[in-house]
Structure formats: structure tokens, C-alpha cells
Amino acid sequence: MGDGPWTKPFVGAHILLLEPGKEGNSWDQIPASWHAIRFDAIDVLFLSPFAVIEYNRSFNLDPVDGGSLLERFKWVIRSARSKNPNVKIILEQFYAGDNSNTGFNIVRDDANVNTYANSVAKFIETWYHQTLPSITGVGEVSARVDGWDVDVEGSTLVAHLPKILTAVRVSLDGLRRKLGAPKFSVSITPAWTRCLDASVAQSVDYINMQNYDGGIGTTPDQYKEVITGLKDHQLIWGLTSEIPWKNTAQAFTDVKSKAQAVASGQIPGIYTWRLNSDNSAYENIFQVWLFNIVHGVHLPDAKTEDVVARHWQFGGRRSQQGPLLSATELH
After folding, report:
1. With contact defined as beta carbons under 8 Å apart, do 51 and 21 qualify?
2. What long-range pairs does 98-101 form, CB within 8 A, spacing at least 24?
3. CA–CA distance, 275 with 241 (Å, rounded to integer)
4. 70, containing H or E segment
């Protein structure tokens, strides 16, 4: 498989639409903290949670009690594309418990796999030509979706995952031809090599390695051993600024080395989990620093590197247990 559809070098980030929880009495109300998200420091934006809808085995936003995540979904696209019209929007099939009825454990036989794969293409097609009001209040922005990703753990860590990946690849390639569109990306975000095989090298454009938390000990070479034919340009480095002490690259000097490797082309891209945790103030400070290093730019209101480094260990907290540092203390 040739170089993927995300322009190198790239900096990605995740937003979990569920958090913080419902504001007031409605999921439609946008959390106040989201207005500080640095969408200008993102090339590839992963949005979750998406799920398998049990009654028809289709792909859609994960249902929430008492409402829908649709308005949050649209607001994030509006905000991201207002800051960066070329940002890639990637929809992430999220994980759930091993026995959940919203994951791949209920998409097993060929008919259900094809139903699911076609529903991914249908969802993306629905948004491809739509526009939304710019967050600035002037003009419209594209609501197009550029790809599909799987958070591989729990209910998505299944033996038949490669079959699903191949089916979605076929479905999205068909959609590309139908629309005359650029290639839609297929990617996975795994912590381990379990349930992967050689077919994944052809079905996915990128392995977004979870080089943190459960995947802290899984190396790029281990992915290449299991996925015969996998190329270096398909392996993307992952960081968590939510819980920095659970990264493979824990020392800030090691983090900077990874960012510099992306900037020099040794690694095609890097991403963070995520920009709307409880410590989102630091997460966004870190995101801007990372973007500046990779792209050799200086975005407005960026903190100096010594500030980013000083607060990296605990992610803008006083300790692993907290409390959070205030905005004035993050200097």
C-alpha cells in the first residue's frame, strides 16, 4: 500500500464527545471548556464515540441517555473547519465492554459485516457534500468526513476484526469511485497486536499506535512481525497528555525526540489522546507545542517550551492524583 491520504507530517488529536457529560438539561449544549480547544493545532481530528447500533448492525453515533451527540458532533466540525479548512475528520468506532452490544462482537457473519461496512460508507456519504455555519458567524464550512478508525480494545478486539477492516476498505473505495472523491482513510488505533494479521497491511492506511496505557510495551517492530508487509509509513506514534506518566515516552526529552522525528520525516505523524479531559487546559497547551515542533511554526498564544516541559510529568496537575493547576499556575 502506498503512502496514505493524510498529508505528512501530521499532528492528530482525539475528542470524546461524551465528556464532559450533559450540560444543564441537554446534550445539545456545548461545554464551556470546549471553546478553548486549539483546533488550529490539529491536522487529523478523531471523533468518538461511534458504535454499532444493535437493531440493524449499522454504524452511527453512540446513543446517550436523554438525547443525542449530534449537535456536539456538528459543533466540533464547525469549529475545526473554521480554524483549519483542510483538517481531516475521522470517525472512530469506539470500544466498550467485552460483552457490549455496541461493538464488533455482534457483527460476525458475512451479512452483518457487509451491512456494517456499507453503513460506514453511507454515513460518510451523507455528510460529504453538506456544509455547516462557520463558528465565526460568517459563511459556511465543509462537513465532509475523511475516514474511519477503530479503537481496538474491549468490544472491538475480536478475531474477525481483519474481515471487518477489509469489508470497510472495499466499501469506502467504492464510495470514492461513486463520488469522484479523494481516498477515504481506514485506520486502527490498537494497544496490542492481538487479532491482527497480514491482511491489515492492505486494508488499513495507518496503525495509530497506542504508545501509552495498555499499549505502553507494544513496539513498532511487534506490529511489523504480526502484520506481514506493513510499512514504516503506516505506523503513527501515539501520546497521551491526559496521563503522561503512562506513556512509552515518559521523559519530556523523549517526547520531544518523537516530535522531532515526525518533523524530519522519520515518522509520518503523531497524535494525542486527547483535548477534552479534565486537564484540558494543559492538553491544549501541549497540543500547540507539539504542532509547532512538527511544523516549525509558532501558533498564537503558545506557551514556551520550558512551561510545557515543567508541567508534563503530571499533565498540569500537582501530582498524579491532582489537583489540577489553575490557568495562572500553568506558566
Report:
1. no
2. 98/154, 98/155, 99/155, 100/154, 100/155, 101/52, 101/54
3. 8
4. helix 70-83
Average pLDDT score, the chain: 96
Question: What separation in angstroms does the CA of 40 have from each of 15, 100, 236, 309?
Answer: 14, 35, 20, 21
pLDDT at 1: 57
Q: Is the peptide bond before 323 cis (omega within 30 degrees of 0)?
A: yes
Question: Is residue 235 pLDDT above 90, yes or no?
Answer: yes
Range 112-118 contact pairs with CB under 8 angstroms and sequence separation of 24 or more: 112/57, 113/160, 113/163, 113/164, 113/167, 114/167, 115/56, 115/57, 115/58, 116/52, 116/57, 116/58, 116/59, 116/164, 116/167, 116/168, 117/164, 117/167, 117/168, 117/170, 117/171, 118/171
Strands 140-142 and 131-133: antiparallel
Distance CA 277, CA 294 (A): 23
**Taking 80 as the threshold, does the pLDDT of residue 252 lie above it?**
yes
Whole-number Å distance between alpha carbons of 182 and 5: 8
Residue 295: CB atoms within 10 A of its CB come to 16
DSSP conformation class of 103: S
pTM over 0.85: yes
* C-alpha to C-alpha distance for 41 and 287, rounded to whole angstroms: 6
Which amino acid makes up residue 64?
Answer: V
For residue 286, what are the CA distances in angstroms to 163, 252, 301, 302?
Answer: 37, 11, 12, 9
* Contacts of residue 199, Cβ cutoff 8 Å, sequence gap at least 6: 162, 165, 166
Instruction: Tell me the three state secondary structure of residue 159.
Output: coil
Cα 98 to Cα 91, 157, 250, 303, distances in angstroms: 21, 8, 29, 41
pLDDT digits (tens, 9 = 90+) for 19-50: 999 988 899 999 999 999 999 999 999 999 99
Whether residue 242 contacts residue 223, with contact meaning beta carbons closer than 8 Å, is answered with no
d(CA 243, CA 221): 25
